[in-house]
Design goal:
By secondary structure, the protein is of the alpha/beta class. The chain is built from 22 helices and 19 strands.
Length: 518
């Protein structure tokens, strides 16, 4: 599903109005009907609920007034407040207010502080509150009368529904200036807005439901946002299917270089993830002293103990890895989990990576080896597609930026890094953002804090590599792998909660979850 920024949504509206001659009142009417229908479908005994709608002066307020009319037609008791005076309303919102007036719906205008006592009393009686104050236009702090109105909404016990976007949340960044409505449900119009998916805005949105409001199919198909929300539909459309008449070679070969003394678990989990997600063959290179562990834990892998020094790979391992890379049909290299940061590993990777001609998934200590002036030069000279999967700390070292800077603009930083380095960047976190060198962005829709445990990233590395081996293009395998990784955690949450979840649990449930995809 496409994701739009606030400005893109305005451009989208403009095209609908100017190019397709759709009056804005029609779009407003459809928005009101759509939001009302979502409430009807999701809330039992809606007609028994007391609903309070708080509208603003702009077109988001008009959407709210239209919702009031549609709910009234369903037999729902509705009370309406507008934050402003009648002469301040946008033309479309004035029209909606006049329609409500003629339908004998009383509108109460909040023009001064003393009117807030009336609102407070109504909020205490309401079962549902609909926020239609600001919409996508807000930038910076909420001002004047709106701040105490939002404070009262947040203090009430009612179920709060935001129309399109919680008031006070920046539609582009998710930033909250001084206050924002804390919604239980956000009914976003046609497409999710970027600020709904980025923190802190995501924390104010509650459940997010998109409702169509009648934009022409040709406009929706032609409008490029450059940002997509990765969901079940995205993955199902791209996940490689298994054929009845096939063999292991049809599902690809992964070469995994991983592990060091004390970090053998990272290698094992990455390997099992690649195999569990469907890769046909897994070749595995690791320090030779780990053989007793690897031989016992991984029965299906083709194993290659490699020369080491002090428990980590030595430069002498390069010749064997080069030979493995020349194996017929080697499809993808996954490198980094548990390798350690020892100088011998860094030197090995600096020599190896520029030679690789198949797609690469580089994680963990593979990324740390690139977080040097020489390493950054190597990244720009890679011959094949490379997927880098850093968490904010690893990206901070790689691009020499503060973690706080990265977290304040996850999309912007990920996009710039992918362009500058010419890589597919998977910036892990909430939400995980995948950026391509073209500037296109994918935002993940799954996952929870159960993934915030050492080893989860190793599972993700194996997952993405396994998908590439089966034929998925790297630019699709990265967001699809991230989605499935988060889905595993979401499926485990009812059973284990988030606190006690471990990466090995992701591997345990992987067969059951992947079975859902055929």
């Amino acid at each position: 599903m496409k994701i739009l920024t606030g400005q893109q949504m305005k451009d989208f509206d403009t095209q609908a109005i100017q190019k397709y001659a759709i009056p804005s009142l029609i779009l407003m009417e459809n928005a009101g009907r759509g939001i009302s229908q979502v409430l009807h479908d999701r809330i039992e005994n809606l007609s028994d609920c007391r609903i309070l709608i708080i509208a603003g002066k702009g077109n988001n307020g008009g959407d709210g007034l239209c919702v009031a009319r549609h709910l009234m037609s369903m037999g729902v008791t509705v009370e309406v407040f507008i934050a402003g005076s009648p002469d301040q309303l946008s033309p479309e919102t004035q029209t909606q207010a006049e329609i409500l007036k003629r339908a004998e719906c009383k509108i109460q205008y909040l023009m001064q502080q003393r009117a807030l006592s009336t609102l407070k009393a109504s909020l205490q009686r309401a079962d549902i509150v609909i926020d239609a104050l600001l919409g996508i236009g807000v930038k910076g702090p909420v001002r004047e009368l709106l701040q105490p109105i939002i404070e009262q909404i947040n203090q009430c016990d009612a179920f709060v529904v935001a129309a399109d976007l919680p008031s006070g949340v920046d539609a582009d960044t998710g930033h909250v200036g001084n206050i924002a409505v804390e919604a239980d449900l956000t009914v976003t119009l046609e497409y999710p807005k970027l600020g709904l998916l980025l923190y802190p805005g995501r924390g104010y949105a509650g459940e997010i439901v998109a409702t169509p409001i009648g934009y022409p199919a040709t406009l929706k198909a032609s409008f490029e946002s450059g940002i997509e929300w990765v969901d079940d539909e995205y993955v199902r459309a791209r996940l490689p299917q298994r054929k009845a008449y096939s063999h292991k070679g049809d599902y690809g070969r992964v070469l995994l270089i991983a592990g060091s003394r004390g970090l053998s678990g990272a290698a094992v989990m990455a390997a099992e993830a690649a195999l569990r997600c469907g890769a046909g063959l897994l070749y595995m290179g690791y320090p030779e002293s780990l053989s007793p562990i690897i031989e016992r834990r991984l029965l299906e892998a083709v194993k290659f103990p490699l020369p080491e020094t002090g428990g980590a790979l030595s430069e002498e391992a390069l010749e064997i890895i080069e030979r493995l890379m020349k194996e017929p049909g080697m499809d993808v290299l996954a490198i980094g989990p548990g390798l350690s940061r020892k100088p011998s590993v860094v030197k090995l990777l600096h020599k190896l990576l520029p030679q690789v001609k198949v797609p690469m998934v580089i994680d963990a200590d593979g990324l740390n080896a690139l977080a040097t002036p020489q390493g950054r030069k190597i990244v720009k000279k890679l011959q094949a597609s490379a997927i880098l999967t850093p968490h904010p700390g690893e990206l901070s070292r790689l691009i020499d930026q503060e973690i706080s800077t990265i977290e304040s603009d996850r999309v912007g930083i990920a996009r710039k890094t992918a362009r500058d380095l010419g890589v597919i960047l998977v910036l892990k976190g909430i939400p995980t953002v995948t950026a391509r060198p073209s500037g296109e962005i994918s935002i993940n829709s799954t996952g929870n804090s159960g993934l915030a445990t050492g080893g989860s990233g190793d599972v993700l590395t194996g997952l993405i590599a396994g998908l590439i081996a089966q034929g998925m293009p790297p630019e699709e395998a990265a967001p699809a792998g991230v989605y499935l990784h988060g889905l595993l955690a979401d499926r485990l949450k009812p059973e284990l909660g988030e606190r006690a979840m471990l990466p090995r649990d992701l591997l345990r449930i992987m067969p059951k979850v992947l079975k859902e995809f055929g």
